[in-house]
Fold this protein.
Amino acid sequence: MSNVDPAELQKFSELAHRWWDPNSEFKPLHEINPLRLDWIASLAGGLAGKRVVDIGCGGGILAESIARAGATTVGIDLARKPLKIARLHSLESGISVDYREISAEELAAAEPASFDVVTCMEMLEHVPSPAAVVEACARLVKPGGKVFFSTLNRNPKSYLFAIVGAEYLLRLLPAGTHEYQRFIKPSELTGYARAAGLDVIASIGLHYNPLSRVYSLGKSLDVNYLLACTRP
Ligand code: SAH
């Protein structure tokens, strides 16, 4: 199990107890969740009755909402504390999610081609080899299924918005949350997806308006973006 940065897992574990506080460090994840959930659900042709795995689920904001939409949901992460928080929250909410401490690569070896939908949000920019995670996602999905990624683009604008703006000026995220060198250009992510045998079917940007403090989906992939793929 080498495709892990322990310092990254530690960062998320330390904050885990605040994961479900909508005014905490995780506020951005709470606010973007309805947007990404809708986008995923519409491209997946609905989530009810589907088998879904959420890779790098953390405290379960997306995973639980996917299960709430009627999918049989597995959530995996390698950080123990966020998983514990996720399990507690699912007990409280009564929305059942199968949370497991396992890597994407290991789950792909154990249960290949067994999910209708694979989601991997805001996680690739925290791992040493994002290409290997993309590969695992491609192995997890059934032929004809959909795989969704989200991450941060790498360019001067994304440095300014995602690091200087979000971490230092607006303090939406703790300083040090993201490392610029780990950001992934859409062309790179598309390359990893194609190399793994996936076809890219759609992409969309995720924007933040600092004046209205409202997130929205839009055309520009300059900063935060989502990519949808299918396995032929
Ligand atoms: N996907 C969730 C959480 C994003 S935070 C959401 O968007 O709401 C990033 C998550 O990735 C954290 O929970 C962290 O523990 C996890 N992570 C980082 N490296 C990982 C790895 N190598 N394998 C699995 N999860 C990882």
Notes: The two ends are 28 Å apart (CA to CA). The CA atoms of residues 5 and 189 lie 19 Å apart.
